[in-house]
Amino acid sequence: MNRFNHLPTLKVDSASKIAFVYKGKKYYGAKGDTIATALFANGIRIFSRSLKYHRPRGLYSLDGECSNTCMEVDGIPNVRCENTLLKDGMVIKEQNVKGSAQNDMMGFIDKLDWMMPAGFYYNTMHKPAKIWPIAMKQIRKAAGLGTLSPDFDMPGRYDEIYPTADVVIIGGGPAGMTAAIEAGKKGLRVILMESRPWLGGCFEYRSREYQNRQTLNERAHQLANEVNALDNIRVFTHTSAVGVYNNNLVTGFQIGQEEDPFTERYLEIRATSIVVAAGCIERPLIFDHNERPGVMQAACALRLAKTYGILPGKKAVFSVGHDFGLEAAIELHDLGLPIACIADIREDGQDPFLMKRIQAKNIPFHKGWVANTTHGQKEVKAVTLSGIDGLITKKVNCDLLVASAGMTPVTGHITVNQGKLCYDSHTNFFLPKEMPEKMHAAGTLLGLTDPVSIETSGKLAGLKAAFDCENCSIKDIGDAKKELEALPGPARGSKLVTAPVQGRKSFICFDEDTTIKNIKQAIDKGFDVPELIKRFTSAGTGPGQGGIPGHNLPLYVAKYQALQDISIKPTTVRPPLVPTGISTYAGTNHKMFKITPMDDMQRKDGGIFRNIGVWQRARYFSSDLSCKKEIENVRSNVGMLDGSTLGKFRIHGPDALKALQRVYVSDMSKVKEGRIKYSAMCNDDGCVIDDGVVVKQGENDYYFTTSTGRAGQTVEWIRYHTRYDGWDFSLVNLTDSMGVINLSGPNARKVLEKVVDIDVSNEAFGFSEYKAFKIQDTIPVKAMRLGFVGELSYELHVPSSYMKAVWLMLKDAGQEFNIQNFGVEAQNVLRMEKCHIILGQESEQRTNLLDVGLGFLWDRSKTDTKTVGTVALRQAESDQSRFRLVGFEMENNGRAPRDGSLIVDTKVRGYVCTARDSFSMNKAVGMALVEAPLADIGTRLEIFEDECGDERIYGKVVKMPFYDPSGQRMKM
Amino acid sequence: MKEIQRVSPVVLKGTPVKTEKRDNWDVVLEYSGETEGPVIVDLSHKPRFDLQDGNVGEKKPFGFDLPQTPGQSVFEKGILANRMNGTQVSLYNLAGGEDTPDDPGITDVTEATLFIALIGKEVFSICEKLSALDFEDPNREVPFLFQGPFSHVPCQIVTLCKDGDNSGVVLTCSRGYGRDMIHSILDAGKEFGLAPAGENRFSDWIKSL
């Protein structure tokens, strides 16, 4: 096809060819083409088949208002080809067809529409109920648009930005640009979002005179230059605003150009004020076969020629309801498109200037006429026109029917931000009645058609936005208001919704194949408002996000029910107002995990890491997930564990002790210098939430640890529970500041004494003692004698930057003993053998201090302060219905049950917290929380595992701890 | 006896051409081929302190008045003091060299965080890819502090300059996030040519403010 290459409005470079593959054959488009225009230029008229009836569908809007041109591109289904720029090497396929879009074997379904009235599946496929799952599968097979493998890897780079602006302007047409210039001149930070790849909006492709012989196209360029000249205006083209939320948060996405480093990027903009100048789309004219390829909207036909250099047909009929349709007919006629006739829905009110030009060009013109039906098997071959009363008809041969009932304001950005719309009988629009705070509307969406009025409305909105930013006077706004009032106001809108047809093949929603007949059926069944009809008929629930039926549906519902006034509202629109891939919302999706100072070294040593909360930790050090060697090494030799994820805090100040007394159940005044105090924290219900150790570093100065999972909340927890006391203390989170090495095993002392200068003998540094010292007079260490794994252990707290140095020293010193790493799972088994609990493992939200056997920590004699949780603990003390933590071993040398398995008889009686095959004990042991009657030693426990069917495994309650009950090994 | 070496949470891919040993840190003063474009500088070796006190506004740990309003920062005598809330101030010793002030309310938190500077014209374009905080807020005078998410991680970020080529911020966050934070910043800065630079570049920049 020959393309225009001389028009000033063109956005394609016909000389620069872009190759692409369509259905296995190579084609060429021009630089600047969308996929849809490139296909159209190559003679493709049928792009897809419809969702339900498999009707042929073609180019209709050029702005992606319906799914007609959704295709599979480079393996990605549902690409909106009207909005997607053609790129070299693209592979394009039709979707939702059996065969081809031209010859779809499923096309026969179109003749079975009588079998599928509105809501047919609700009515027919539930009696008997067992039909439904079968029917649902078949319907889903037949329906749907495109297929995507669950493991499909989305190509491209998806980015995100979070800019801040004083004013965000949605829509880069004349009103939006004028608003931007006004706000920009005030020195405000302005963001201008335009969904097309260029600024200009409805001026960009039109040659009509603006003023003083300047065309609208030239004026658009002039405004765009003014916008670009202001540094404080950021322009985002090819960017759709998809949501507006409280406090003027605007979200959107931008499609990357060739030179951009992203494929698409998500935008989240915080603004003080918003101007919505999103313009209008065309309101579809409804008649029989109104979506047959060859039927298109006026702007689509005109932009095909003016923007993309493609004549949209060989012979056209126009059936329109507005002056823009007449203007399009004249411009296309001047470009060489033969026009058989124009049928104008309106009896009067046409622009006299346009009428004069139509007469001068001898284009047949019919007032009060409308397209009634199109003819042709797959594409338009002729159209039958009729008077709007349907009394007389006339058939005209053509391959292009330009059809448009009127205009529809794009108000989604206002309504998603809780603005209210109201029907306006003059414009036939649903116009904003109540604008959200600090949001202003401008341009054609207010019904304005006069170019100067459109711009002036933008100026007024820009000044109002500046006022919101405290940067404009009331007088300036008043002057702009007067200026606008002196100009032509909103134009009268055409009210016709449908041609005089029965509506069996008159589509109100192209995406869901919903016809006027379906709407009537829904209303006849009692669904009397658009919200209900939408759900019953699916109208407006497709990829076009309600663009096609959004305006016609409420108008038609009002008309069919002969409502006196159109109090009916359009259906609710919701974000995202424009569809795009989930990949865009996912953005770059950086994984943000914390690592310990020893991460790198442990990975080199073969550590297998797992994400545990915000941390990544070495869980295993071999592919043997039972960790046998790691466990045996700690029990018989010496191992090193990286415990850096422990929460670590400093609390200091005159009232530090009071704060500790408040949150810990023990009497913290008994913390002695050089000794470790183990204690626990409860919540107000007495449920245990944390445990750890506290050491005294000096007068009113303590260092304490928390569990890994609680570290992030500890400061707030203590502050919250002391909020009314006015106590003077300070808390510093040192979790990341200090690394922790747990040196454990019978040879631990022999390793440590080679590294440190202090005496670490049992006499000098006994169990439960604390020492602060320096290694090589340089590295400060806080050392604690603890026994979490049940062996001689030293917990060394070392500044993070020195961790590697100390780790290497211990490794060197331990070489002669063959010191080994051990991971979190080995630690879990070791401490389980010793029956030391891990909160979260041996407890859940309802487990209190007494349930897990930590009641001995609770000091009831504290008088100085109230202790969090003790009131509830006193009540729980005599409650015999609570769970008890018990140890158990498996019967007949059986295997360990899975963690979380249920303890049952005829009911659920408890659950397994942790259980493992113990290498130290040579049997499977574990801990469980069970009802009190099951807690007696020797009680048989029946254990139910997931998916075990009727099989059960059995254990019996035994004494705790399983390993080294006298505790000699950790005190050696 | 092996030499004791401290390890920064920040790993930058670059070839150091000038380094200096300082308090057991290997401080990179200059990288090979440092560019004029935006740069990232590891300052994790610079001492940082937490000061908490009921009357923190009256304290003068480094001999000058601390900022009185939360969010305000003061840069004096090489110390950047940032008012966090009614009772807390963070102190970054950008000049380095001074001992920990003798105040019971002070805790050395150098080890708790990573510390970097981002310098250059495109710094705010990089930042807006990772945070919704308005580092260029025209209503705030530099230096000013934000405490909020940066790449989804709670951070302290101080805008020191928002003047074209000289723009820059310093950022601290939990040390554990070092690997992923640096990765996300470098990834965000890739399109702008963000590259590592040594401490000299930072020192020159600080002097120019």
Please specify the SSE layout and strand pairing:
The complex is a heterodimer of chains A (972) and B (209).
Chain A: E1 13-22, E2 25-31, H1 35-41, E3 48-49, E4 56-57, E5 70-73, E6 76-80, E7 90-93, H2 120-124, H3 131-142, E8 158-161, E9 164-170, H4 174-185, E10 190-193, E11 209-211, E12 214-215, H5 216-229, E13 233-236, E14 239-245, E15 249-255, E16 264-276, E17 280-283, E18 295-296, H6 298-306, E19 316-320, H7 323-334, E20 339-344, H8 352-360, E21 365-367, E22 369-375, E23 382-387, E24 393-397, E25 400-404, E26 406-409, H9 412-415, E27 420-424, E28 429-434, E29 439-441, H10 451-468, H11 474-485, E30 507-509, E31 514-515, H12 516-524, H13 530-537, H14 552-560, H15 582-586, H16 599-604, E32 608-612, E33 615-620, H17 628-636, E34 639-642, E35 647-652, H18 656-663, E36 677-682, E37 688-698, E38 701-706, H19 714-720, E39 730-733, E40 738-744, H20 748-752, E41 770-775, E42 779-786, E43 793-799, H21 803-814, E44 820-821, H22 824-833, H23 870-876, E45 883-890, E46 902-904, E47 908-918, E48 923-931, E49 940-944, E50 953-958
Parallel strand pairs in A: 1-7, 8-16, 9-10, 9-16, 10-13, 16-29, 18-25, 19-20, 19-25, 20-21, 34-44
Antiparallel strand pairs in A: 1-2, 3-4, 5-6, 5-7, 11-12, 14-15, 15-16, 17-26, 22-23, 23-24, 27-28, 30-31, 32-33, 34-40, 35-38, 35-39, 36-37, 37-38, 40-43, 41-42, 42-43, 45-48, 45-50, 46-47, 46-49, 47-48, 49-50
Chain B: E1 16-22, E2 25-31, E3 39-42, E4 48-52, E5 73-76, E6 79-85, E7 88-93, E8 106-108, E9 113-119, H1 123-127, E10 144-150, E11 153-161, E12 168-174, H2 178-189, E13 195-197, H3 199-208
Parallel strand pairs in B: 3-13
Antiparallel strand pairs in B: 1-2, 3-9, 4-7, 4-8, 5-6, 6-7, 9-12, 10-11, 11-12
